[in-house]
Amino acid sequence: MEMGREVRRVPKGWQHSRRKDGRFQPLFDEDFETAVSRWKAGLVSWELRDAAYFDFDATNRFDEFGEYWEYVGEPPQRDPYRPKWTDAERTHYQMYENVSEGTPISPVMESPESLARWLADHLADAGAGGTATYDQWLDVCRGRPAPTFSMCSGEITSGVVGNSRRLIVS
């Protein structure tokens, strides 16, 4: 996952949880059960010294890193994960900043186009202190990752704007 802006599929009417102080609670775009299963599969692969699972080029790297949790971190904790939804439930779109685990920067919208329109019309923060046009937001709303910032021709811009410039140059 790149850090910056990402569109997430959410259920209609989704209300992102908030902390006691009213600020959004950062959440990963994954449910707790899936995160635990992935962590456990990694632990089993670590114990079996399955270098391919970790893209290691040599199995002696296991000794270099020590214990599995020293390499990947402690097991997942329940709090920073979103609820478990089926794909059928995830019918709507919401833009998130994902520099942290992720907090919304937009309301829940019915389509990538309506989300891009809202983001452009409300001058939503695209990262690096800027915003973006409808077309630039639409690329991200359709799933193109956007880092926090981008360097284009010696100029620092938001990743959302930088994506569109790379598209033109390529």
Strand order of the largest sheet: 5-4-1-6
Residue ranges: pLDDT <50 for 5 or more in a row? 166-170
How many domain units?
2
List the quaternary state of the chains: single chain
Helix content: 25-40%
Strand fraction:
15-25%
Cα-to-Cα separation, first versus last residue: 22 Å
The number of helical runs is: 6
- DSSP summary, beta strand count: 8
| Overall pLDDT confidence | 87
Radius of gyration (CA) equals 19 Å
Largest β-sheet summary: 4 strands, antiparallel
Shape: globular
- The run of helices and strands is EEHHHEEEHHEEEH
Determine the structural class based on helices, strands and strand pairing: alpha+beta
What does this structure look like?
With 170 residues, the protein is of the alpha+beta class. The protein folds into 2 domains: 4-27 and 81-169, no CATH class; 30-72, no CATH class. The chain has 6 helices and 8 strands. The chain has helices spanning 32-47, 61-65, 68-72, 112-121, 134-141, 159-169, and strands spanning 4-10, 28-31, 81-82, 92-97, 103-104, 146-147, 149-152, 155-158. The chain has a 4-stranded antiparallel β-sheet. A hairpin with a 5-residue loop joins strand 4 and strand 5 (103-104). Helix 4 (112-121) packs across helix 5 (134-141) and helix 5 (134-141) packs across helix 6. The longest helix is centred in the first third of the chain and has 16 residues, at 32-47. The radius of gyration is 19 Å and the shape is globular. The two termini are 22 Å apart.
